[in-house]
Each structure stands twice: as structure tokens, then as C-alpha cells.
Amino acid sequence: KTPLKQSATSHSVLTEIQPDCQPLTTPPKLKEIPPADPWTPTSNLKMLISAASPEIRSREQRRGLSNNTSEVLQAKHCLQEQLSGDEYEKSQPSRKEKSLGLLCHKFLARYPNYPSTAENNYICLDEVAEELNVERRRIYDIVNVLESLHMVSRLAKNRYAWHGRHNLTKTLQTLKKVGEENKYTQQIQMIKKREYEHEFDIDGERNEEMARSFGSNEHSEMCFVELPGMEFRAASVNSRKDKSLRVMSQKFVMLFLVSTPQIVSLEVAAKILIGEDQLEDLDKSKFKTKIRRLYDIANVLSSLELIKKVHVTEERGRKPAFKWTGPEVLPSIRDTKLEATATTWVPHISESITSKEQCSKNLFPSRVKQSFTRHPSLIKLVKSIENDRRKIQSAPTSPVKISTSSDQNLSAVPSDMAQLAAISKHQLEGQSKKAKEMKMKLALECNQSSPEAVPKPEPRTAPLAQKSALTQPLGVLPPSHSSVSPIMLPHTHSGVSYAIYLHPSQAHTVTTYSPSFMLQPLPCANVTGIKSMNSKVLNKITTEEGNNHIAKEDPRKSLTANEKQTVKPESTSQKCLKRSQALQENSLIKRCRSDDKSLDTSPTFFPSGYLIPLPQCTHHGNKAGFSNKEKAGICSLQHTTYSSPIADEIPVTASELKAVNIPAFHITPLNIMVSPTSIAAAPVLSNSCLNSSNTNSAQNPSSSVLNFTLQHLGLIPTGVQVPTNPVLQHTPVSSKPENVSHSSENMNLKEEKVSKNILQLPDHELSGKYSAVTPSQQLSVPKEPQELQTVKENFFRTPGGPNTVSSSSGNSDGTDGISQGTLYIPQRKLEVSED
DNA sequence: TGATCCCGCCAACGT
DNA sequence: ACGTTGGCGGGATCA
């Protein structure tokens, strides 16, 4: 049968992850095949035939491929099984053979991980379904999750474009950001806590729960997160009523990205995704359905090797879970920068604020509410807006764009630019005052910070970025090292800032790494970004979940785990104590020690105050206003409410909002010297430009300091020295051999109306445009002082690494349901076992 | 058994 | 009206 042959080819491809498997011809090839088959005049007929003996074929194929790797093994197993029952063979392809995971492998095998622009990577669902001998329905399942990762995008009915992993990094970054905004971390904690309480059947103090759920749930609604380049196209083609799978898939991924041990149990995921768990009417059936769906998603994510199945063992028993095995997701440079700009940092601040909203909540409870109420659409809007903003920002600076005068799109830009510039100016002025104030504060709070360190205020504000910025563990830069501190400090001064003082205990929370916290006498120590590295270790090892402990109480109390617990008002805490105590004492102590070592410094003091720039929060809102017109309308209203000082000052029209958002824009026309080869780098540069503009290169810490810091953070091995050029540094950290082909697949960007896109980059690559910077790309970027600065900032900012999770602790005001030291999650012992 | 999750009905949409 | 998508959950398999 001819069809088999086709499938055979795909199987061979199955072998594994080889990125470049036949990048070129997949689509055409597929097409060819059908004609080859004499027996099937019609596709339908063919389908039928294939259906008749799919298992047989697959078997044959597998045998042929027996030399292949893991896949083969499975196949063999299947075969063996079947062998035992000869007669049955035909009847049972065995469920596994039909599994979505396997199907997905086949599907993925057909397309290169990094398709070149040249080839037309179109996917015809019908063809694929046919070739893979599956019903179209199944293909939808796969495509939907791929779409959620922007690995494919729908061009038209029955037609998709294959992007492979080009956009993956960017997508993940975006998802992570959104996840943080949604306070998924806190939600997870909540759920765990609840479970815990449930176990003990403790006094049903629903009050807290109610409050908590209240806070956490609201945003559970979220729309499909789009990438800058792709959304429009897709939107034009199909209605965006996207519901489940796509969105669910994204949310699921977010959970991994914001979790510190990057392990998510199905149960927790399902609850969060359902979102209504608050009501406690855990609809059994609904829950069950959710789980089912999650399995579907997990299967394809597994095929993509982004996650893998594991089991977490708790007192309760073994629970299915998945562990993130995908790339570490670092905040994009751009984002980081923005964040930096947006937020003012105090070195010691260990607190992390997940979202601006959170900030706003804390600061202004009353107002906050509004912001919280973000409608699902809002989030989306914000996202898209942000994206737009980025584009715009990058545009001016991006060399390519400049060079390409030919762009028609550019024409639009100028006017916008002008507006933005004007606005930004305005902002700057306002901010500058505040900046001064900030400086003052900083100076007071941290002796270390030298006046020079304080950069001038930057115009650009990055709303979203804020959250992450706060996340930074102050510990990274020990206060004692005054020289260093300046670096750490974000130079941004967004206008009004508020100082929040955290208790040491809270500081703990901040730490990405929860387990260690409690014991640490010195908050700073905890702060140390121990980050994600741990996660690896954690595997198979017992890990505690729900590490975040938030305590409002006096810091001293929190010094030790025991003490801390004692402090806790809740009865639960006691119980928790019992359970967790032993554990804490054991492993935690170890960790602490190690931490201490690394930290060495010991600022005994914990001035953990951090300044939160309100304006930025506002900006967030502003952003929303910014992008899509339609959305803009909606957004603008809400945002207005945000009420940041700045916002107030400025009329809130949508257009204005836009301007506000883009402040960075004018900033510096960077003279970016980009190496010709690295077009992709351009975006990066632009980012750096923005940030760096304020920053003096002089401020940069000595390389030795940098090295020291990095080493302590575990970002680089002790022996390693970071080259002067930070950019290069990056490589070790994130570099994965994903070679970034600068080539961009030329997704039909043209379609995008976005004039702002300056992306006239010759290669049009999505990644390039959007600044999805891959490690390799970064490398290619010529060193610039500014860039250096940026990189450094990134490092410092993300001591926690990809895993850095903003802890929930932030809300001291309790506005947020979760906040209030009340959120205490008992540590539980988790055993993660791989399957 | 509980964990997985295939299968395909059928509704919501698009054309 | 018909074809495409894809939510959904019964119930078969797997471990």
C-alpha cells in the first residue's frame, strides 16, 4: 500500500528531536504521496482503507524502523504484546499506538524544529490526518496546543503555517510573564494550602479561603496570549473565541514557568485552570474533564519535550504530575530592561512583586480592586499592547529599520514617534522629580548605594516588567558591597514610588527557593538567588512545595522555622509544623548553610524596603490602551481607573495612553552598531538602548564583581570568569544549541497591518523582530557598553533565574486574598519520581 | 482500582 | 446547508 510508505518516512523521522530533519520538503512531499496511491481515488476512500488496517501498517513500519531509538522501543513493546495474542493483533493497534503522544511525534517529525524561511511550511490538516491515518479531530488536538505555543498559526481554514520552535523562546517568556501577572504562583500556593487544610480537616475557616479565592480567582479568566507577530493574522482568519485547549495549554505552560520546582501536578493544574475552585463546588465531572484535557495537552507538550511525566508522592499518595523539561525561560532582555526602568530598586529588597496590580493593591487597596478586576480580555489586550509597544520601541532603534527607508510602514511611525516623544518628555520631567526623591530614599535605605548610582529617570515605563523586577532578590548584591549596589539598582524612576518595608520573613518568601528560607537568620541570605538550579537537584528528591511562607510578624520571629511557625495564628500552622519540622531541620539547614556561604555577606540587616513605582502600575493600564483599537477602547476605561499619578496628569485618551506607554521610545536613538550578521540582535540592542540610556556605563560594576555575583548565584561555575562583555556571558547560561537561524521564516507578516512594525528586516524573522533573542543571537551581538549594562542587569535581576517566581508575599495589606501573612503553606514532602 | 486518554457525538462556527 | 472546529465526557485500556 502506498500510504504506508509515506508513513514510514515519517516514522523514521520520529527518531527524535533532530531539529533539522528534512526541513525543506515536508509539505510537498506529503502532497506527492496521495497521488501515488492508486487505490484511493478519494481521500475519503483512502481514509477508510487506512482505518481498516492502521495497526498493521504501523507495526510493519515500526519493525522496519526497529533500529531507531526510544520510539522504537515502545513500538517493540507493543509488538511483543501483540505477538502474544496473534489473532488479536489486527484488532488492537494497542491503545498506545494510537496515543496522542505518538501521533504528535509523527506529526512533529514531519516538520523541522527550525524551518527556514524559504520553505513554505504549510500544513494542510486534511493531508496530515490522512497521512497519519487519524481522524482530523485528533490533529486538531495537536495543532491547538502547538498553536498555543505559536509553533504553528492558522492561516485559513484547514490550513496552518509551521513555525517550529523559532518563536518558542519568546512565547515562553511571554507566557511566563502572563503567568506571573496572574499570580499563578500564589494560586498554586493557595490550592496547596487548601489541600493541606483539608487533610487536617482543620477548622473550616472559610473566611480566609473565601478571601483568598476571591483574590486569586478573578483573573483566572484569560484570553489566548498572542505573540506580536502572529496574532493578527490568525485573528483575521478565525474568530478568537478560543476557549479551552489553546488557552488551557498556555495556562498549563504558565504554571510550569512560574513554579519553582517546575513541577505541576495535574490536580493543581486542573483546579487552577478551572478557576472556579473557589466556590468549592468542585464539580467532579468538570474536574475530571479538565484532567482529561490536561492529559491531552500534556501529551503533546511531552512530545515537544517541554515536559515529562513524573509522580509526586505526598502523604496522600502518588499523584500524577509533570515536570518542565523545556528551556529555561529567562525574562527577555527587553522585558527586563523595561522592568528595570519601571521599577526602582533597592538593593536589599527581597520582596518580589508579581504584578503591578499586586503593587497597586498593596499600595492602594481601594484602587486596586479595579485593576484586579481585569477582564480576561484585558489581559489579552495588555499583552498585545505591550507587544505593540515593543515593536514600536524597537523600531526606532533598530538599525535595520532605519536602513530600510523603503518601508511604507515607517511612514506611520514618525507621527506616533513624535507624540510619544512629547509624552515621554513630559513623563520624564515628572519622573525626574520623583527620581530625586527616590534617590534620597535609596540613599537612606542603603548606604551602599552611591549617589551616582542612581540613574536618571527613564522615560520608558514597562508596566508588565515591574513585577519581575521586584522579584529580584536583593541578596544578590549584598548591601555591604557598595560598589556593586549601584548596578543593581534599577535606574528607573518612574514617577511616584512608594517604599514598602518588608519583614525578613517576607523576604524569605521572595526567595525563589522556598525551602531554605525559614531557617535563615539573615534574610538576605535567603534572598540569594539560588534559583532554578535547584530544581534539577530536586528531582527525585524530596522537595517541599508551597514554600512560600508569608509572615507579617516580626522578622525576628521568623528567623527560624520553628519560631516562625509559632507565630502563625492559624492552627494549621501547628500541624504543619509537626510535619514539616523535621524536614526543615534537615534539608533546609543544609541549604541554608550553603546559602550562607554563598551569601557570605551578611547584612544582618534587612532593610527590605522596596520602592514601588506606582506610575508604572498605571502604565500597565496604559499599555492596554495602546494596541488594538478595538480593545483600546475597553482598556482605556479600565486603565483610567488605575490612576497613577502620571495617568492623572495626562489625559487618558487612548492615544495618549499609547504615548505614555511608549516612553522609552524616544529615548535614545541608539547608535547601535550591529554586526551585519546579527540582525536578530537588533531588537536586543534596542532594548538595551532604552535602559542603558539612563545608565552610565561608568556605573557598571567591575567585571570581577560581576563574576563574583554570578558565581554566587550559581549562574556560572565558580571557576568561570565572566568576560568583560556580559553579553557573552549569557551564553553559558541559557545557551542551548538551538541554533538560531537568523533566517526567519517569512511568515506572511505582510499581512499584518501593523505599520508600526518596522520589521523590515530582511529576514523578517519573527524571532528577530520580536526580539526573541536566542542565546546564539545574543552572542553575535557586538558588545556595547549599554548592552553590557543590560546584561548585567538581567543577571542581577534574575538571580532566581528562570524560575524566579515572584512570591505572593507582597501584599502586606491583605488586600489580596492571598496576602497577609496568612498564606502559609506548610511544607510538605514531595517525592518526585520519574516514570 | 485508579491513572490514562481514545473515540466520536454533536454543537458552534465559518463559508 | 454543509464542512470545519473542537468541547466534552463515556467508557475502554493500561499499570
TrEMBL record:
SUPFAM superfamilies noted in UniProt: Winged helix' DNA-binding domain
UniProt biased composition (Polar residues): 1-15, 394-411, 559-574
Principal cellular location given in the protein's record: nucleus
Bias (Basic and acidic residues) ranges: 546-557
Domain called E2F/DP family winged-helix DNA-binding: residue spans: 95-164, 240-326
A cellular component term, taken from the record's GO annotations: RNA polymerase II transcription regulator complex
Single GO molecular function: RNA polymerase II cis-regulatory region sequence-specific DNA binding
Pfam families, sorted: WHD_E2F_TDP
Keyword presence, Repressor: yes
Listed Low complexity bias regions: 799-817
Family per similarity comment: Belongs to the E2F/DP family.
Listed PANTHER family: TRANSCRIPTION FACTOR E2F (PTHR12081), TRANSCRIPTION FACTOR E2F8 (PTHR12081:SF40)
Protein name: Transcription factor E2F8
Organism: Struthio camelus australis
